[in-house]
Amino acid sequence: xxxxxxxxxxxxxxxxxxxxxxxxxxxxxxxxxxxxxxxxxxxxxxxxxxxxxxxxxxxxxxxxxxxxxxxxxxxxxxxxxxxxxxxxxxxxxxxxxxxxxxxxxxxxxxxxxxxxxxxxxxxxxxxxxxxxxxxxxxxxxxxxxxxxx
Length: 149
Ligand SMILES: [Zn+2]
Known about the structure:
This protein is α+β, with helices and mostly antiparallel strands and about 150 residues long. The chain is built from 4 helices and 6 strands. The longest helix is centred in the N-terminal third of the chain and has 17 residues, at about 40-55.
């Protein structure tokens, strides 16, 4: 960057350093040292904000929020996939696992089977999704499944 483009300003965090914006580096540089300006005042400001934020929160409330964030209540279910070919089953399985993960759920496992009555391949897929989302997952799966065929 040529020096003609430098527009020096005083650091807004009050550290008395002349700086300029270098758009190619996407950072403030110090006019005098030509180094990236890691402002000591800004860092202490961020730390102060962080401290005052966590101090506002009652510990019990904070821990409850952390716990529920880590482990929401889950609902379990399964779907029976069946089709003439392995590819059909694969597509249904992939579709289901995509939908389940879109809802922040998890596929637990599956069980293969051969349906003697229909002659179709069967696979039972077990999964869990956050509480209250089970019906949405099933509806979505039914709708999307018809598009596969
Ligand atoms: Zn500064």
